[in-house]
Amino acid sequence: MLMIILDGTIVNVALPAIQNDLDFSQSGLAWVVNAYLIAFAGLLLLAGRLGDLIGRKRVFMTGLGVFTAASLLCGMSGSQEMLILARFVQGVGGAMASAVILGMIVTMFPQPREQARAIGVYSFVASAGASIGLLAGGVLTQAISWHWIFFVNVPLGIVTAVLAARLLKAERGIGLRAGADIAGAFLVTSALMLGVYTIVAAADHGWASTHTLGFGAVAAALLAGFVVRQANARNPLLPLRVFRSRNVVGANLIQILMVAGMFGMFFLGALYLQRVLGYDAVRTGLAFLPVSLGIGLLSLGFSTQLNARFGERAVLVPGLVLSAAGLALVTRAPVDGSYVTDVLPAMLLLGVGAGLSFPALTTLAMSAATPADSGLVSGLVNTTLQAGGALGLAILATLSASRTDHLTGAGESTAAALTGGYHLAFGVGAIFVAVAVLIAASVLRPEAGATYEPAPADEPLATDITYFEGATAAE
């Protein structure tokens, strides 16, 4: 998971070097990121369901092999076309591998405390990996070349494959006959790929353009067709019963909003540090380390204890409030800002807020998972994660660029215009997270098993199963 998360941000720091080396245009350069994102987000749901049907280990190992081989091709790329194609294939492998990870966690660790610790590790990797990627990308690009941000995945992939072959138990899956919804798979994969493409291309074409509205309408129609199909199919790809849980629906909505704000901060915050304050790539990566450290210190222990004692919702709301406060605080960073006084406080708030929020969100979002569909729910969680990142980056980057152009036309200096654009984006990101706070407070329900005393180690996992028709407590 760390490899896949790193790959989402490690490329950002190396983009200028890639552009110079392969002679990309500004619009063409965006496809180094978009080709990966479209394949990744579009296939997560299908890959998660395939894990349930044919075995999660089989899908994981296949995806890991594809991702590692595509990383080698990315590093060897000497042309624009080869790099973009390899990035698309890399996204396919990343989707297959990552879609089933949470599903494997909840089945491998059925005991509440073990599962909470495992989800804490997963949440740390998934959230802190973004800022680690910025640092790693800067170091590799400056010390060697941009090719090595991809080559580094090859030995990591081989080691991971060896360990996975030894440590993961083989599963047969429930069989293709239990859910091989070909029509549903085509509809949802097409809808997600086209939807992500529409979002990432909106920055070039405009949100009200014929291109954006047309492709958006087609994506919405495909998604509506998928929902109708799932309501009537004998073996649906995504059983709609999953959405009868308020906690699952609320957690996924909150994740979209939170990731939209946070991802915008990572991307545009890096630009503020480099283009306004003059940081190099390595120094930019180091500037984000407080976020990683805050997430790590909380996700790997303290958050787990708080969730067990007070319940996920009670921990999530303060975490979201701190994250919103961090985004709001960075809107005050000036043109000649100081890292210690103008940036570091926001980084600390974001680190603590994310460290509290992500483990609680992940647990709530997986509360609908049964052994038969844990891979599917895992794919759904990762889909909302990627959709939130794509949507947030497209919206915030577009708003930031428009504000910068307006200020430049009004006579502001380049640095002041850029800063004004970033301020607007950070403010909108804070609003996204504030809306997530409202959803958490109004939609989420306290967990049925949450108490104010530590749960015994052998206590059964408490989950909200009221939405399963005819389910018994044992089921």
Q: CATH H-level name of the largest domain... which superfamily?
A: MFS general substrate transporter like domains
Uncertain regions: pLDDT < 50 for 5+ in a row?
A: 448-475
Instruction: Tell me roughly what share of residues is in helical segments.
Output: over 70%
Instruction: Please state the CA-atom Rg, rounded to the nearest Å.
Output: 22 Å
State the end-to-end CA separation.
Answer: 30 Å
Mean model confidence by pLDDT = 79
SS strand fraction: under 5%
By oligomeric state, this entry counts as single chain
Transmembrane segments: 29-47, 59-78, 84-107, 119-140, 146-168, 180-200, 206-228, 249-273, 285-302, 314-331, 343-364, 376-401, 421-444
Membrane topology: Multi-pass membrane protein
Organism: Protofrankia coriariae
Protein name: DSBA oxidoreductase
Concise summary:
The protein has 475 residues and is mainly alpha-helical.
Give the tags.
MFS_dom; transport; MFS; Growth Hormone, Chain: A; mainly alpha; 475 residues; globular; 2 domains; transmembrane helix; cell membrane
